[in-house]
Amino acid sequence: MSFDEMDVDTIWMNGEFVDWDDAKVHVLTHGLHYGTGVFEGVRCYDTENGPAIFRWEEHLQRLYDSCKPYNMEIEYEPEELTEATLELIDRQDLHSCYIRPIAYYGYDSLGVSPGDCPTDVTIAAWPWGAYLGDEALENGVKVMVSSWRKHSSSQIPTNAKTTGLYVNSLLAGEEARRNGFVEAIVLNKEGNVAEGPGENIFLVRDGEIYTPGLSQSILDGITRDSVIEVAREMGYTVHDDATISRGELHTADELFFTGSAAEVTPIRQVDNVEIGNGSRGPVTEEIQSKFFDLVNRRIDDHEEWFTYI
């Protein structure tokens, strides 16, 4: 669904609520030319206890942390961004939505050094369903291993959620879609599994769960962290610093993606190889069910993860 088809009309921009169509930047904005921005993607769920943002504080902290490598300073306190976000959602009467805070170097000069460019901050929110398609959550997705590699953390900070870095994600994802797949898996420079273009990845083998660690040049996903904690509470052994080879993908019992957008999405095929029985596996289904019970507040666990509107 395009933005023009959505019932949204307001964006918070540099301390003010502005009409959606008036939220504009100059064509010589530094972040537009050099990718010098950081952002977050956060879900608000229409829970049984009312609309609630999932792990807002952790996402907000990562936004501020992502600024640090770029010497970018957000002039607003976290409490101000929280208040603005809650009001933005309330103003648009959104019960379930996706939230996009972004901070970027704005308009002043256009050398590679941002110089005196201001740090602009914007927050938008809109309805967004299943990221990889409505059927993906139940039936799983077909993915391919991309020919594009994930950059190393020694080249660009991989644990900062930087706008410019997502060109790598775009290349991998579009390559997959051109070849008839829904999504990609990206290997790191050593040839081991890193992540998806916008998701972390988990592998299930003999009832135990494996996911690449931070040393594999991945983003330290907040949904990833949540699933690790929930799976361990359910009694699963989770190896959260695994090194997974490309070949292990094809022989896995189950695979699944996690992410704020993707939530918990099964992977049913890698390249031309079916994973398990070619459908959502039992471990994935159990974790997925627990995750959705949690975020929709059908169970009381982890109340501290929720910020209510």
UniProtKB/TrEMBL annotation:
- Matches recorded under CDD domains: BCAT_beta_family
Q: Which InterPro entries match?
A: Aminotrans_IV, Aminotransferase-like, B_amino_transI, BCAT-like_C, BCAT-like_N, BCAT_family, Class-IV_PLP-Dep_Aminotrnsfr
Lineage summary: Archaea, Methanobacteriati, Methanobacteriota, Stenosarchaea group, Halobacteria
Q: Name one GO biological process term.
A: L-leucine biosynthetic process
Q: Which UniProt keywords apply?
A: Amino-acid biosynthesis, Aminotransferase, Branched-chain amino acid biosynthesis, Pyridoxal phosphate, Transferase
- Which organism was this protein described from? Haladaptatus litoreus
Q: Which cofactor does it need?
A: pyridoxal 5'-phosphate
Biological pathway: Amino-acid biosynthesis; L-leucine biosynthesis; L-leucine from 3-methyl-2-oxobutanoate: step 4/4; Amino-acid biosynthesis; L-valine biosynthesis; L-valine from pyruvate: step 4/4; Amino-acid biosynthesis; L-isoleucine biosynthesis; L-isoleucine from 2-oxobutanoate: step 4/4
MF-aspect GO terms: L-isoleucine-2-oxoglutarate transaminase activity; L-leucine-2-oxoglutarate transaminase activity; L-valine-2-oxoglutarate transaminase activity
What protein does this entry describe?
Branched-chain-amino-acid aminotransferase
Q: Cite the EC number.
A: 2.6.1.42
Question: What does the UniProt record say this protein does?
Answer: Acts on leucine, isoleucine and valine.
Q: What family does the database annotate?
A: Belongs to the class-IV pyridoxal-phosphate-dependent aminotransferase family.
Enzyme class comes to: transferase
* Catalytic activity, reaction form: L-leucine + 2-oxoglutarate = 4-methyl-2-oxopentanoate + L-glutamate; L-valine + 2-oxoglutarate = 3-methyl-2-oxobutanoate + L-glutamate; L-isoleucine + 2-oxoglutarate = (S)-3-methyl-2-oxopentanoate + L-glutamate
